[in-house]
Amino acid sequence: MKIYNKKGEILWESIDDDFCGANLCEANLYLADLRGLNLRKANLCRADLCGSDLREADLSEAILVGADLHIADLRGTNLYKADLRKANFREANLYRAFLFRADLREADFYMADLREASFRGANLCSANLHSADLRGANLRGADLTDAKGLVKMMGVTQGNFYWKRFYEGLRSSNYRFFKVGLNTLREGEVFEDDERILYSHPGFHFASRSWCAREYPERPLEALIRIPEDAKINEPWATCGSASADKIEIIRVFDANTGEDVTEKYM
Q1: Same domain for 137 and 167?
Q2: 145: enclosing H helix or E strand
Q3: pLDDT tens digits, 210-224
Q4: Same domain for 54 and 116
Q5: Which of 86, 109, 141, 245 is the most exposed, fewest CB within 10 Å of its CB?
Q6: Could you tell me how far CA 133 lies from the centroid of its own chain?
Q7: Which residue, of 112, 131, 150, is where some domain finishes?
């Protein structure tokens, strides 16, 4: 495989798809098929990777400062500790990409698919996350100073009312049974109120009534809940539409199919 620069000159040639440490600065890789390649510690500074297929490629510790990755496919790509300052990821697919401790200062993720991507310990200072899909992304320990486009969609505050869906018996998916009234964490459980994570586990998750109906149509019970005044809240940035708290108060319970108030059954 040969890789050329933007002038058409050969930058690197490999017979075994191993480009570890290769100097590919300003390489022309527009629409290139780079699936699964070993590009560890490669220099791809200002490279044209627009529309390229980098699925499952190893770009750990690679240098991609100012690289153009517009609409590139980076699903499952390893970008551990990569230098991605000012890189263009607009509309790129980074589903389940691994960006642990990556340098993403001033990177542009406009409308990028960042679902379930790991940004643990990453530097996202001044990054553009406007309209990016961050559902399930792990932002624990990430530096979000001056990051743009982060929105808290719910506006959760103590005392507000929200909704939660249950199976029969007011049972949740983790086989915990709830009750009408105050529900708190079990002894020894610790609530993580770091807003950089999607929501705490353990914790009580809740959302709007319409979101619960859309996401859990198979659950036959829906409950109106209140967030107690002394509750800890985790409403992360760019939330998928739900949040969590360390305690909730179930006010009313309804049959999700008929709308019948069935609160008395769970008193």
Answers
A1: no
A2: none
A3: 989 999 999 999 999
A4: yes
A5: 141
A6: 7
A7: 150
What pTM did the predictor assign? Answer: 0.78
**Could you tell me if 90 and 132 lie in one domain?**
yes
Q: How confident is the model at residue 152 (pLDDT cuts 50, 70, 90)?
A: confident
Q: What stretch of H or E contains 194?
A: none
Q: What average pLDDT does this structure show over 175-203?
A: 89
pLDDT value of residue 4: 74
Within-domain flag for 52? yes
Number of separate domains in the chain: 2
50 and 92 housed in the same domain: yes
